[in-house]
Design goal:
Number of helices: 14
Strand content: 25-35%
Distance between the termini: 136 Å
Helix content: 25-40%
Number of domains: 5
CATH topology of the largest domain: Four Helix Bundle (Hemerythrin (Met), subunit A)
Number of strands: 28
Keywords: Membrane, Transmembrane, Transmembrane helix
Largest sheet: 6 strands, mixed
C-alpha cells in the first residue's frame, strides 16, 4: 500500500510540474517567436528538469526496499497520535535485549508500564489514512485541475496547442503560431518594386529561411507581401537586420502600401541576417549569403622615364593613378583578392578630336547605328506573313544595305592608309590595322544581305545583318585597346601590364570569376605631361640691314625647351642679283664664326641656350658681290619623336 500511495503522489507531482513548465516555455515562445537555436536549449532544460523530478521523486524511491524502521518512521510522521510512538513501541517489543536500562528490575517495570500506555494509542493509528495523507491528496487534486485545464485549452484552441507542442518538442519544426497577419518576402525588381520572376520556372522568387545569395557589393531589393485575414493589412512593418558575425539588431521601418512593403540593401558587403515583423506575424530569420567577387587589393607602379628628361626612375609606387612625362614607360602590377578566370586591361585615351583613332571610332559608331537600324527594319519585314507583298520595302532596304557596304569599303581603305601613316606611336598603327582586319568577312556579309533584300529574302538578309552588327562591334572593340593580362610567374593572384604614357585619359581593370565580375569598377586616371615644342627668338638684329661684305653684325638669340634641346643651328641662305641665279641653299654657320652653341657638341643638353656672337661677313668665302642674305635659328627638341619638326625663327 505504501508503494502505491507514493507512486500516485510522485506521478501527480511529475504531471503538475511537467505541465506548468511546458506551459511557461510555450508562452515565452509565443511571445518571442523564438528560433530553433533558442528553442533547442529550452527543450534541453525542460527535459533535464522533468527527468530530475522523475528520478528524485519516483524512480529512486520506488527502486529501494523499505525497512521496518523506515515504515514506522513514516507512520509516526503522518500520525496525529504522537511523535515516535510506533518506533518506541517497536523497540520495547522487539529490541529489549539491546536496551541497557532494562537490565534492572526497575527498568523492566518501567518498560512494561510504557508498553501498557502505548498499546491503546497504537489502536488509534489508521495506516490507510497515513499513507493517503493530505499532501498526496493535494498533489492529486492539483494534477487533476492541471490536466483538466490542458484538455479545455486544447479543445478550445487546438491550433495554439498543436503549434506550441510541436515547437517545444521539435525545435527544428517549421510549425508557426496561429496568426492573422502573413508576410511573404521576395526578391524585388528595383524599378517596379515588385517580386522578380524566375526565368526558368516562371514563379516569383520567394526568399526562404535558407536565405538568399547575392554577389558581393551588389544591391538586394526586397518586396514583402503583407496580408491580413480581414483584408486590411497593417500600415507599417519593421525590418530588423544585423551582421552575421554579430552585433545589435538594426530596425528599419517599412511603409505598407496596397499590401506591399519595399526595402533595398545597398551594396551588401558582408553576410547579413534579417527578418520582418508586422502585426502579429514575424518571419523566419533569413540569411543573406555573399558570393565573393574578385577585386584589386593593391596596385604597384614602376616608372621608366625617358632618358632625355633626366628624371630618376621610380619603382614600387603604390596607387593606381598614373602621372608622368609623355613617353614614360609604366609597368603596372595588380594584386588581386583571389584567382580569376580573366583579367582584362582597357585603356581609354583622351585623343584630340582630329586624331586618327578618334575619327575612325566615330565613323564606325555611325556605321553601327545605321546597321542596327537596318537590321531592325529587316526583322520586322521578315516577321510579316508575305514579304512578296511589299517588294518596294525590301528593295529600298537592299539599296540602303548596299550603300552601307560601299561606305565600309571606303572606311577600311582609310583605316589601312592611316595605319601606314601613323608614326608617332606604333601602337596606334597596330590598333588601326587590327580594326581593319576585323572587317574581313563583314563587307561580304553586307553585300550578300543587300542582294538578299533585293530578291525579297528578308529572313536570309536578317541573318547576314546580325553577323554584320556583331562584326562592327568587333571593330570598335579592336579600337578600344583592350588587352588580356597574364599572371606574373607562378602566382595566380598577381598580374602585370606595361603601357607607354602617350595621352591623358583613364584605364580600367575588368576581372571575372565563375561568371561574376568585380564588385566595383577598377578605374584610374592617367595624367600625361606633354613635352611642349621649343621656343626660339632672335634678339639682335631686330630689323633688316643693308651692309657690305666687310660688316660685323652683332647677333643674339634665345632658345629654350622644357626638357632640353638636342640641336641648335644658325642657318643662312644667299641669293644673288644676277639673272641666271641658282636656287638658294641652306647652310649652317660654322662654330668658327658663332662659337660653340650646339648642346649636342658641347655635351650639355640644356633647357635654355642663349646665343651671342659677332658675325664677321669678311670671313665668309661663299658670299656674292651683291645679293640678299637670309638667316634664322633652327632648334630641334630633345623629345625623340619623328613627328616633332624643328622650330625656326621667322
Amino acid at each position: 500500500m505504501l508503494r502505491r500511495r507514493h507512486l500516485a503522489t510522485a506521478l501527480a507531482m511529475l504531471i503538475v510540474l511537467a505541465m506548468l513548465l511546458a506551459a511557461a516555455f510555450m508562452a515565452a515562445d509565443w511571445w518571442r517567436h523564438s528560433d530553433w537555436y533558442i528553442r533547442l536549449p529550452l527543450l534541453l532544460i525542460y527535459l533535464t528538469a522533468v527527468g530530475s523530478i522523475a528520478w528524485l521523486a519516483l524512480i529512486r524511491p520506488m527502486s529501494q526496499r523499505w525497512s521496518n524502521r523506515q515504515v514506522l518512521s513514516y507512520l509516526d510522521a503522518t500520525s496525529p497520535a504522537g511523535r515516535d510512538m510506533l518506533m518506541d513501541l517497536y523497540e520495547l517489543c522487539g529490541a529489549r535485549d539491546q536496551i541497557q536500562e532494562l537490565a534492572s528490575e526497575q527498568g523492566r517495570q518501567l518498560a512494561d508500564e510504557a508498553l501498557a500506555s502505548l498499546t491503546p494509542l497504537m489502536k488509534q493509528v489508521r495506516p490507510g489514512q497515513s499513507f493517503m495523507g493530505r499532501a498526496t491528496g493535494r498533489w492529486l487534486a492539483t494534477a487533476g485541475v492541471v490536466l483538466l485545464a490542458a484538455v479545455v485549452f486544447s479543445a478550445k484552441f487546438p491550433d495554439y496547442a498543436g503549434a506550441g507542442l510541436a515547437r517545444l518538442f521539435n525545435p527544428f519544426s517549421d510549425a508557426r503560431w496561429p496568426h492573422k497577419t502573413t508576410i511573404t518576402v521576395y526578391r524585388a525588381d528595383a524599378a517596379t518594386r515588385r517580386p522578380m520572376v524566375s526565368r526558368s520556372s516562371g514563379e516569383k522568387m520567394q526568399i526562404t529561411p535558407e536565405g538568399v545569395s547575392v554577389p558581393q557589393m551588389e544591391k538586394l531589393p526586397l518586396a514583402a507581401h503583407v496580408t491580413h485575414v480581414t483584408g486590411t493589412p497593417p500600415g507599417r512593418a519593421t525590418l530588423f537586420w544585423k551582421s552575421a558575425a554579430g552585433g545589435e539588431w538594426v530596425p528599419k521601418p517599412l511603409e505598407v502600401r496596397d499590401g506591399w512593403a519595399y526595402y533595398e540593401f545597398a551594396e551588401v558587403g558582408e553576410p547579413i541576417i534579417f527578418y520582418i515583423q508586422g502585426g502579429d506575424y514575424v518571419t523566419a530569420r533569413m540569411p543573406i549569403h555573399i558570393i565573393e567577387r574578385p577585386y584589386v587589393k593593391r596596385v604597384l607602379v614602376d616608372y621608366d622615364y625617358p632618358n632625355y628628361a633626366g628624371i630618376p626612375d621610380r619603382s614600387g609606387v603604390e596607387g593606381g593613378g598614373l602621372y608622368g612625362l609623355q613617353g614614360t614607360k609604366v609597368k603596372l602590377t595588380f594584386e588581386l583578392s583571389m584567382p580569376v578566370d580573366e583579367a582584362v586591361f582597357l585603356l581609354e585615351e583622351d585623343l584630340p578630336t582630329d586624331a586618327l583613332l578618334t575619327v575612325t571610332a566615330r565613323a564606325l559608331r555611325d556605321l553601327l547605328a545605321r546597321q542596327e537600324t537596318l537590321f531592325s527594319r529587316t526583322s520586322r519585314l521578315a516577321e510579316e506573313t508575305s514579304t512578296d507583298a511589299q517588294p518596294g520595302s525590301a528593295a529600298k532596304l537592299g539599296q540602303s544595305q548596299g550603300d552601307l557596304a560601299r561606305r565600309l569599303v571606303e572606311q577600311v581603305k582609310g583605316m589601312r592608309e592611316a595605319a601606314g601613316k601613323q608614326t608617332t606611336f606604333r601602337g596606334d598603327a597596330e590598333v588601326l590595322a587590327r580594326a581593319a582586319d576585323a572587317a574581313g568577312d563583314l563587307i561580304g556579309d553586307m553585300t550578300k544581305a543587300a542582294k538578299a533584300l533585293a530578291r525579297g529574302q528578308a529572313g536570309q538578309a536578317k541573318t547576314l545583318q546580325k553577323s554584320a552588327v556583331a562584326a562592327v562591334k568587333g571593330m570598335l572593340a579592336a579600337l578600344s585597346k583592350r588587352s588580356r593580362m597574364q599572371p606574373v610567374g607562378n602566382s595566380d593572384t598577381t598580374y602585370a601590364m606595361s603601357v607607354q604614357l602617350r595621352h591623358s585619359g583613364r584605364y580600367s581593370i575588368h576581372l571575372s570569376k565563375d561568371g561574376y565580375t568585380q564588385a566595383r569598377k577598377e578605374a584610374h586616371h592617367i595624367r600625361v605631361i606633354e613635352d611642349r615644342p621649343p621656343k626660339v627668338q632672335i634678339v639682335r638684329p631686330m630689323r633688316d640691314l643693308v651692309e657690305t661684305r666687310l660688316a660685323n653684325i652683332e647677333v643674339a638669340f634665345n632658345a629654350s625647351d622644357d626638357y632640353g634641346l638636342r640641336k641648335v643651328e644658325f642657318i643662312y641662305k644667299t641669293e644673288t642679283d644676277r639673272l641666271d641665279k641658282e636656287p638658294a641653299k641652306e647652310k649652317v654657320l660654322g662654330d668658327r664664326i658663332t662659337g660653340p652653341i650646339d648642346p649636342e657638341r658641347t655635351g650639355n643638353a640644356t633647357r635654355r641656350v642663349p646665343g651671342q656672337f659677332k658675325w664677321q661677313l669678311r670671313r665668309m668665302d661663299d658670299l656674292p658681290d651683291s645679293g640678299t642674305l637670309t638667316y634664322y635659328v633652327r632648334v630641334l627638341d630633345i623629345y625623340p619623336s619623328p613627328d616633332r619638326p624643328p622650330v625656326t625663327t621667322p
